[in-house]
Structures are given as C-alpha cells and as structure tokens.
Amino acid sequence: MKSESITIKDIARALNMSVSTVSRALKGSYKISEATQQKVKDYAATHNYHPNLMAQSLKNKKSRSIGLMIGSVPNNFFAEVISGIESIAYDKNYHVIITQSLESKEREINNLEHLTWRSVDGFLVSVSAETTDISQLEKLHSNGIPIVFFDRIVNTMKTHKVVADNVGGAYELTKHLIENGFKKIAQITSPLELSITKERMEGYLKALAEFNIPVNDDYIKYCPHGGMIKEEIENAIEELLSLPDPPDALFTASDRITIGSLAILYKKNIRIPGDIAVGGFSNFSSPELFNPSLTTIRQPAFEMGKKAAELLIQLIESRRPVTSFENVILPTELQVRQSTVKLPVQ
Amino acid sequence: MKSESITIKDIARALNMSVSTVSRALKGSYKISEATQQKVKDYAATHNYHPNLMAQSLKNKKSRSIGLMIGSVPNNFFAEVISGIESIAYDKNYHVIITQSLESKEREINNLEHLTWRSVDGFLVSVSAETTDISQLEKLHSNGIPIVFFDRIVNTMKTHKVVADNVGGAYELTKHLIENGFKKIAQITSPLELSITKERMEGYLKALAEFNIPVNDDYIKYCPHGGMIKEEIENAIEELLSLPDPPDALFTASDRITIGSLAILYKKNIRIPGDIAVGGFSNFSSPELFNPSLTTIRQPAFEMGKKAAELLIQLIESRRPVTSFENVILPTELQVRQSTVKLPVQ
DNA sequence: TTGAAAGCGGTACCAG
DNA sequence: CTGGTACCGCTTTCAA
Q: How far apart are the C-alpha atoms of A121 and A139, rounded to whole Å?
C-alpha cells in the first residue's frame, strides 16, 4: 500500500550493474564513466530515487541533524532565530532538533544529554539564565563535537560565537535616554553570569560614564531566572519605585523583562514616559502598537540564526580540525518611540 | 577522541552472551530470564548504553520523526503550537522537523516532498492560506502515511483533526460587539477556502442573524495571502473606510490580520474604538499593552499542539489500521478590552 | 572503470 | 531461554 520508494539496489538491477557502481555514479565519483553516470542519474531522476537517510546515517555515522538549545520557542527573538536556522538547515539538508531550557539548568542538562544520544552532529546553543555549570558542554566540546554559541555565549570555550552588538545597543539606548533628559536610569536585567548581561551592562555604564553620571547600584536589579518568574520582575520594580530617589527611566535588558515590566507598570497605572520612561531590548513584532509605543533595541535574530547555523554546518563538514574561530557581532538597531521621549507639558 | 558510545555487541562480549539475548533483554522480552535481563540492564545503565537510533530506524523502517508544516515560526500562535508539540514529542522520543509554508502553496508542496523523502513517520499540518490543491496530501494519505490536521484543516480527508472552536469564538466576539452598540461590523479574513475562514464566518453570521442585523457584503474582505502581504490588508481597510456607510467595528479573523490592521489604523491616525472598534483572533502575548488594549479571541495553541502530536503518534504506533477519527474542538477564550468598548462621551 | 563483499548497529526469525 | 544469522540501504576497500 505504501508508495514504494526505490533503492540503489533496484537501480542496479534495472540497469544491470552493481550497487557500488550505482552508488558511485550518484555521487559523481570520478572513477565512473560519463556514460554510466548519466544513465544512472537519469534513471534515478525519472524514478524519483532518494537515498535512504537512515542508511546513510548509519554508514557515515552522521545523522545530518543539529541540536538546538534555546530558552523557549514562544519568544519572538528565539522564534526568529529558529526561522533563520531552519532556512539554512533546509538548504543544506540538515534537520534541527529543538529543545527548550525554559531557563532551567536541570532541563538544559537533560536536553543536552537527550540530544547527545540522539546523536546530533553538532550543537547550537544559547545558554539558560540559570546556567552556572558548563562542564557538560565542555565535555562535549573536548570530545570533538562541534558547538556554536549564539546570543548567550560561553566565553571560556574556544568555538564560533554569534552575538548582537549588545554593548553598542545598550550604549545607544542609554545615551538616547540621557540626551532626552533622563538622568536616573535604572536597569532590570538577567543574572550577571550571562554574557549578554555583562555586555549590556557595559554599554549602559559606558554611556553613564561618558555623561559623567554616577552609577547608582540601587538602580541595577537582577532577575535570577531571567524574568521567567513574574515575581522577580515585580519585586525589582517595587524596589525601584520605593527608593527615596526613584529612577526616571528604566532600561529593560531582555525581551521577557521588557514585556514583563510593561505589564506590571500598566497594572500599577504608572504613566510612561510621564512617571518613568521605558526602553529595552525586544524583538516584539509591533512595538509601535504599544501604549505608548515602545522604544526598543532590536537584534537581528533571523540573521543570527542563519549565521550560527552556517558556521556550525561548516564545522561539522570540515575535513580537518578547525582551530581558528569566528566571533561574529551583528549590529543592533535602536528604534526610538514615545516611551522614552518626554511629552509636551501637560 | 570521541567519547566512545557502547553498542549492544560490546555488552554481549562483556557479559558473554549473544547479541540477540542482549537485544531482547533490553526490550524486556518475556522469553528472557529475570536474571539475565537484570544483568544486561545493569551493565547497560552503568556503561551508559543508548541504542543507536539510526540503526534502529534503518531496521524498523521508522525514523521516529514527525514532519510539521505551519505558516511561519515567528507567529505567536504557531510558536505556542510548536512548544506543545515538542513537549509531547520529547516525552515519546520523537523529533519534529519543522517546515514553514509562509502561506505559499509552492513552498508547501516543496516542503511536503522534502519531508517525505526525509521519511518522517507522519505529518502534522496546518495548510497554507493559498492551498487549493490537496492532491499531494491525499496521495500521502492514501499511501497510508499518518496525517493529523490542526488549525487549518482539510475537511475532505478522513483523519484526526484538532481545531479551536472557531465558530464559537467568532460568535462570542461578534455578539460582544453588537451588545456594545456596534451594528456595522466589518470582517477582514483569510481566503474562504480555509476551514478557519469558513468557521469564523459562520460564527459572525450567526451572531448577526441572532440580532437581526442584515449582512452587508461590502463589509466582508478577504486577503488571498492571509495577510502575508501588507497591501492586501491595507487595501481592505481603505475600501472599508471609504464606503458611503463605513463600518463602526472591525473583526479581524487571524493573528496576522489583527496585528496588520492595527498597524495600519495606527499609521492612519484612526482612533480605536472611537472611529472604529477592533477585535479579533490573536495569540499575541500581551494584548493588554496595546494602545488601546486589544480585545482578542485566544486559541489554546499549546494544547492544540499537544493534542495533535498525541493523536499523530498514536496513529503512527497503532498496530492495526485506524478507521475512526477524532475531531477535537478546543475552547477559545474571548478577552474583552478597551478596543471594543465605547468610551465615555468625549 | 566496475564488481564483490564486509560492515555500520540493531532486530527478529529459526534452531536448539 | 539462548544463540546464530540474515538483513535493513548504503559506503567503501580490495580485487579484477
């Protein structure tokens, strides 16, 4: 009943040659006469031959699959990344096995194991907010398994990395806030262990320094779970607002924290930017529709996924061990909207 | 250098038994003595044995993968669906190969082919807005390959289907609009060929009929590409607004159309709900943050993904041919917000 | 330039 | 209850 798919053996039988010849002809091996090659390829094409990938995998010890580890799929940033990865993987005939850490280090470790014995050919990873122990990743890496980091990278590991210009983006936004008259700029961010946290902090501090604004540690709040838990954002905002000298602007350092903060401020009936200006990293699709329209720093998520996938596949398919690694930094884009621009006097 | 993964043969050698015995012991086959089983399982566990999936696949002619066909990943509805599918697939040890139609029928056909010769064990599909020709799906189906439809289904095919209560959702929203004083309710929707379009239309018409409001065909606009092309939404809105008797409310029948319409109305400086009320289907994460906050009908996307994946895997693993199919309808949820509630007199 | 055959890691049939 | 072995579809070495 199933549509019979034809095998290399069928072709050999039909064309009266050996399977090895057919196999070689299909790969365009140079040791096969043009004539034979053409005959085989024609037959394959007209009979809609496709190699059995499981057989190839078994033989070649390559699954042609790559493991992806991200925070969560329903997050615009990661969704765009996936889209970029898929576009490359599709072309190069790989498939992508997605796993979500949901910012939990236990899940992350589980997922890595799962992917390992699914025998993926390589890993694409953005570490979770909770990640402290990277020994598992290091073990994989020292076993020679290709890994490419993107977004939240692990700096100590020697491999390709693809990130957005987090320092630049944070700097631009902070500078923009300062130039618009905000001097008391708070930041709500992820754990300081994360690469993106450090980098975004660096940009923030750089802008403050440039304008001679002293750093107020009370204005910097960390969310241990990267905002996965609503309360951590809520607490951060409570604390900021109840300071004797509360901030007049808020820089939210991740997509989840940005949206979470807005929702909380909205619920508290706090006016933006009247009571406090808000701007942050976000790949939300339509930040202009917010109330007020939201100033964001967008990351080139799709591009990031593409580039990371390209580099990984390149690693996987490289004949000789790769020793020099790229550190790709993609530009971010500051989009200024109402949430960070002082309204005319009311 | 690679971390040596142990095979069934290694276990056999170490334990001085045949590979067949080991294989059977690992599967807990009843023809093996408890003692042997225990010995094998212990050895496997302590030596971290995992079956080689490619070998298993080759032998069993099952890839343990399922093909997913959706509109696009960076779309909150589909992203949530994926998350639900993954949660089930992960548990049952399947992996999901994602393909995006981007609402193009050419891409859809390509993707189906691609998935076919990737030898997925079954398909999870939500057809594209452009889909007119389902012969390929029918061929797969008649070849005995399991398919489960979700969201945008194909009614003529006998298989499991998982959808939201589109009729009910559309009815609720339309009724809500009417009860809030809106009588001239326009609808912007996807092509009428789509199941979801028909169903949402049905709910809309049902509510109008119930309140004795005559149907005005000028108020119903279709987007041939489901809103993938911005102009089609823009044109629809232009036409609606330039009618001699323009509508006072807008029912947007899909996620993409909802967001697209808002963006356009926003750009045109049209007040919501003052000039026109807006409500529609959307799984946007924070519709309360919009300006104004947006009335939506939410679909249980995560649940839909879970249910569809469960049904598909059940089909795949069923010993005997399945002849009776489920038609799962999951409840939608109307969330009323400012965009459809008349403001106090201004 | 082509063919024969071993083998990748399991599974399952047939013997015993 | 256990062992021997053919085979899934393809790649690749060795021989011709």
A: 15
Whether any strand D atom is under 7 angstroms from the Cβ of A25: the reply reads no
**Closest nucleotide to B18: CA versus each C1':** D3
Q: What is the pLDDT of residues A269-322, one digit of tens each?
A: 999 999 999 999 999 988 989 988 999 999 999 999 999 999 999 999 998 888
Chain A residues close to B288, C-beta within 8 Å: 263, 266
Q: At B99, is the secondary structure helix, strand, or coil?
A: strand
Beta-carbon separation of A58 and B58 below 8 A = yes
Across the interface, which of B117, B118, B290 has its CB nearest the CB of A95?
B118
Q: What is the pLDDT of residues B196-234, one digit of tens each?
A: 999 999 999 999 999 999 999 999 999 999 999 999 999
Q: What's the pLDDT score for residue B28?
A: 82
By the 8 A CB rule, do B172 and B166 touch? no
The C-alpha atoms of residue A174 and residue A15 are separated, in whole angstroms, by 70
Q: How many helices (H) and strands (E) does chain B have?
A: 12, 12
Instruction: Tell whether pTM > 0.85.
Output: yes
Among A101-110, A274-283, B152-161, B333-342, which stretch is predicted with the lowest mean pLDDT?
A: A101-110
Strands A65-70 and A122-125: parallel
Name every chain B residue with its beta carbon within 8 A of the beta carbon of A1.
143-144
CA atoms of B70 and B151, how far apart (whole Å): 10
pLDDT digits (tens, 9 = 90+) for A26-73: 988 777 888 999 999 999 999 999 999 999 999 999 999 999 999 999
Alpha-carbon torsion angle B77, B224, B219, B268, nearest 10? 70
Whether the Cβ atoms of residue A162 and residue A124 lie closer than 8 Å to each other: no
How would DSSP label each residue in B295-331? Answer: EEEE--HHHHHHHHHHHHHHHHH-SS------EEEEP
**Nearest neighbour of A57 by CB, restricted to B54, B74, B144:** B54
CA distance A236 to A250: 11
